[in-house]
Amino acid sequence: MTTSDSREVVIEATPGEILDVIADVESTPTWSPQYQKAVILESYPDGRPKQVEMTVKAAGLTDKQVIEYTWTDSSVTWTLVSSSQLKAQDAGYTLTPDGEKTRVTFDMAIDLSIPMPGFLLKRTLKGGMETATDGLRKQVLKVKKG
């Protein structure tokens, strides 16, 4: 059964600055505690990651996932290529400029391949959504400051 969620945050940065932080997937484990490791398997000609292998730990489970990214000037989405714990995962950020800031919407839909109690799934997803928005905001501001 697919579970999905959406969350929004405003970040004091341009869409380009935000996308640059997201594209630095190998640094994701430094600001997103669920991610243990990220390795770029394939990149697009512009240098942005296309396929990435990530080791993710959530709800006491460790999963090795391969995901594939699609980039535009105002969004990034990814879809699951392979995983031992998930049947499917589709997620992404949509960035809307708002003056000196950017409104960032994060959407995620997952389908677990293993049974998990609903309350645990919701708590785990909530933590991931908070990191994907508030954690991203903190990292973007940190990178901007230098």
TrEMBL record:
Source taxon at top rank: Bacteria
SUPFAM superfamilies: Bet v1-like
UniProt xrefs under Gene3D superfamilies: 3.30.530.20
InterPro entries in UniProt: Polyketide_cyclase/dehydratase, START-like_dom_sf
Protein name in UniProt: SRPBCC family protein
Species this protein is from: Mycolicibacterium hodleri
